[in-house]
Write a structure and sequence with these properties.
By secondary structure, this protein is an alpha+beta fold. The chain is built from nine helices and ten strands. The strands form three sheets. It has a four-stranded antiparallel β-sheet with strand order 1-6-2-3. Strands 7-8-9-10 form a four-stranded antiparallel β-sheet, with helices on both faces. A two-stranded antiparallel ribbon has the order 4-5. Helix 2 runs antiparallel to helix 5 and helix 8 runs antiparallel to helix 9. It binds flavin-adenine dinucleotide.
Length: 212
């Protein structure tokens, strides 16, 4: 699926993926994680959300969970591609160089046909996402966990198979240092860290990982 950078959040939400794209419902879930009014939904673009690079950017969560590749136009008329994990480098910091623009985001079919699981929390019912985790089961049985909103940039953990609870907690602790958790008015970093572990364990259980 190639999503134009100028596609609005409202247009993406209205898109009906083919039934074979098992991960299709993630699109609507991520659009709805964007708790803005219809006025924003009809103007805000997928590309704008990625370029803004806020930790709570729900289009970042979607593209990170589905192996999104950013297609970038360069000032000399060329094109380069970057994984979403290299594109979003920190809060309100992206990897665009002067004069470049984001043209599109490509989501590979292999990612769209994965079984997925979604968890999100915010401090208030209509608040900005403080924690957003997406788990996915790859065709070969591998387990992929994508952590967004709670961290300053998206983080992906890959496992050969769904881990047991200890392995999952160890990897989270090792790969997300305390300094990588985001801290702002939408959530303190210790709350975001706690909820990240909670949701990761819930998702792990859903995919039949070993003992807690
Ligand atoms: C009530 C409200 C709620 C909000 N909730 C959220 C939320 O939950 N999560 C969240 O992440 N944000 C939220 N926002 C902030 C903002 O509206 C969104 O991040 C929105 O997705 C930005 O997209 P845009 O298309 O409006 O970007 P713009 O504001 O038009 O652009 C953002 C920046 O990126 C640049 N840019 C845009 N498109 C491209 C491109 N294709 N190539 C290169 N540069 C580009 C622009 O020049 C600008 O510097 C909210 C805002 C409001 C007012």
């Amino acid at each position: 699926l190639s999503i134009s950078a100028t596609c609005t959040v409202a247009a993406l939400d209205a898109f009906e993926p083919p039934p074979a794209w098992v991960a299709g419902p993630l699109i609507g879930l991520c659009c709805r994680a964007f708790l803005a009014s219809f006025k924003i939904w009809n103007v805000a673009t997928v590309g704008g959300n990625l370029c803004m690079a806020l930790p709570a950017g729900p289009m970042i969560s979607l593209c990170a969970a589905l192996d999104g590749v950013c297609v970038i136009w360069t000032p000399d008329g060329g094109e380069r591609r970057l994984s979403i994990f290299d594109f979003v480098v920190g809060p309100q910091r992206n990897a665009l160089r002067p004069g470049e623009l984001l043209r599109a985001i490509e989501l590979p079919l292999a990612a769209l046909t994965r079984r997925t699981s979604f968890r999100r929390a915010s401090l208030s019912p209509l608040g900005r996402s403080g924690v957003l985790l997406i788990g996915a089961l790859a065709a070969g049985g591998g387990f992929i966990l994508t952590v967004t909103a709670s961290t300053r940039r998206p983080v992906r953990l890959d496992f050969v198979h769904p881990p047991d609870g200890q392995e999952l907690a160890d990897r989270l602790a090792a790969e997300i240092p305390a300094s990588l958790y985001y801290d702002d008015i939408h959530g303190r970093s210790d709350w975001r860290r706690h909820m990240t572990f909670e949701f990761a364990e819930e998702i792990r259980g859903e995919f039949g990982g070993g003992r807690p």
